[in-house]
Amino acid sequence: MDDPVSEANISGSDGSRGATNGGIADWYLYRLAEAYLLRAEAKYYINPADGTIKDDLNAVRQRAKCTELYQGAVSIGDIMNERARELYWEEWRNVELKRVSLCLARSGKPDEWGNAYNLDNFDKQSGTDANGGSYWYQRIMHYSLYNKGIIHVNATGLSDIKYTMDKKNMYWPIPNVAITSNIKGQLKQNYGYDGYNPATPVWDKWEDALADEAKAE
């Protein structure tokens, strides 16, 4: 059996001390807190005015002994901020923000700044200005050091650093070797990178991918 006390007793800063080699016990796929957070998010995509969204977030905050609870309307930003606090070191934040970017574009619901996203172009924009892009990009613009001009750093060998992030960087480029090695099919490069061709077909169903594997040339 696993030793949950040892696994939870993380000391130091590497986030892995206290881990065991595992055992034969059942695995937890979700923590209850994440179930509340996911339900709150799903409710938001259906109806942002749903008054029970705050109840899901407050259930997580109350368990964490927080004294300040949500009282009124909750934004997708509130939900994502709660995810950041509750699931710190437990999820890939970059991937989660991209997932939510797609969900917002599909639902048509606004973010915390009132921006609405279009499924046709939320991930097909370029530039480093403050307008447009995906929800992922807007979070970067509001909360990070990217695209803010020169950043002065008082450290040996570091000065006048300028961090930039493009809207197209929501997705990374597919390595060219992966594209050219696939001689029986055609992989689509992501928008904004060399080799991108909007005419390259994208599979809609898993059956299409399976049929592509059977191509002889």
Describe the structure.
The protein has 217 residues and is an all-alpha fold. 37% of the residues lie in helices and 2% in strands. It folds into 2 domains: 28-143, no CATH class; 176-213, no CATH class. It has 8 helices and 2 strands; from the N terminus they run H-H-H-H-H-H-E-E-H-H. The chain has a two-stranded antiparallel ribbon with strand order 1-2. It is globular, with a radius of gyration of 22 Å. It starts with a helix and ends with a helix. This is SusD family. It is found in: Cell outer membrane. Belongs to the SusD family.
SSE blueprint and pairings:
Elements: H1 4-8, H2 32-46, H3 53-63, H4 76-86, H5 93-107, H6 135-143, E1 150-151, E2 161-162, H7 176-181, H8 206-213
GO cellular component, one term: cell outer membrane
Protein name: SusD family
Pfam families: SusD_RagB
